[in-house]
Amino acid sequence: MIKFPENFLWGAATAAYQVEGNNIHSDWWPWEEKAGKERSGAACAHYELYEQDFDLAKSLHHNAHRFSIEWARIEPEEGKFSQDELNHYLQVLLALRARGIEPIVTLHHFTNPVWLSEPGGWENKKSAAYFTRYCDFVVRGLARHVRYWITINEPTIYVSHAFLFGVWPPQSKSFLRMRRAEKNMLAAHIQAYRLIHKIYKALQIPKPFVSISQHMMALVPCSLDWKNRFAAFLRQKLFNESYLDTFARHKTLDFIGVNYYSRQLVDLKKWGLRNLVADVCESNHHPAPQNALGWAIYPEGLYQVLVKLKKYHLPVMITENGICTSDDAQRWQFLKDHLKNIHRAIGEGIPVTGYLYWSLLDNFEWDKGFGPRFGLIDIDYQTQKRTVRESAKKFGRICETHTLE
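The structure corresponding to this sequence follows.
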């Protein structure tokens, strides 16, 4: 029997654009049509049905829930802020609090207002200032109900997918453009962190906990020759730690939010910058089960990631970890195996404070559309009927007892 700390946070996560529906002022809305992608449309209608969804979370004994605020709802036109939309998110917070569920609030989860994306989005020198202004409006309005803030979700994934690989809007394939966006995002977090703490101090509220959610992979050398080990070390520094190092230097992390899904098998074909950062094993040397998107399921990688975070001397929260699969037994196995590895890390002195499964609901999986099923709760997109999966009930028993049998 595995026992977790009594004050451990248990729950699941969502992102506004993926579940709310009809975020018509966001840059993804026109892009879906322009790029010929599946339309997000009403998504899970969570904007209207959030209380029903939180009732389900409460019935599953969740004591925490991560959600995001849609910037484009709050500021649909540059400099014009919507008090009505802020009030909506206040009601979302109050609904969570009424059910004894701790909110973890994300301020940016991949989407931008159209007005920001048109003049260059995060490449725009003013983007950090725009983001900080938006944060000021939101945080002042909601601070009394929030202890945990995530400023930016997975900045490394956002800049790489939007500005380097070209699979998300604005579909750029430019290293220089990516670096410009990255620089502005780093500045945005640092400014937002300081602003949030300043607001809490002015309002005489106990200090908040502010972080980012950092996408982290287990970077595993395919063979133990020194080339692969060096490439894995380099990628760890570049992809997993570089942002954390910057924020740690500026003292702008109160905890570390970790999003973990998979591993990368590092197998260098030849020397070269692109090879060092991108070559992976293509020979199936270390086979692993996969999720519906073909990502390797590698639970021990979460332990490996957590151990490497010990040097930061900060609490860690798993802000995303989940599987898309049509096999619910596989989902339950995934959950159990990852929780065992978290418990192992806790036993070695890593201060893990919570676990948020991705996702509470099946949802719109960005450029992949509605096909991948990540949810603890099944969504019938035709009727918006919610059905709690068996894995969710079993996870609920862990949430209730803090114990994994």
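The chain has one domain: 2-404.
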